TrEMBL record:
<protein>
    <submittedName>
        <fullName>Uncharacterized protein</fullName>
    </submittedName>
</protein>
<dbReference type="InterPro" id="IPR011042">
    <property type="entry name" value="6-blade_b-propeller_TolB-like"/>
</dbReference>
Length: 65
């Protein structure tokens, strides 16, 4: 378990990491992609945003005080 988000193209034998490099987001429970390709991932610590081409996200909402 490494908590990353991977994109798998049809017929591919391997996936590409598109979010959560180095276990940044723990274990995402929900993932959404908008019309611009920005990925939003919900994890126990909050909501993270990953812009296209970047595997390192920014915290949009933190669940910690």
């Amino acid at each position: 378990r490494n908590g990353r988000i991977q994109k798998w193209l049809s017929g591919a034998s391997t996936g590409t990491t598109v979010g959560g490099a180095n276990g940044q987001i723990g274990f995402p429970t929900d993932v959404s992609v908008d019309n611009y390709g920005t990925i939003y991932a919900l994890s126990g610590g909050g909501l993270y945003r990953f812009y296209p081409g970047s595997t390192w996200g920014t915290i949009v909402i933190s669940f910690y005080a």
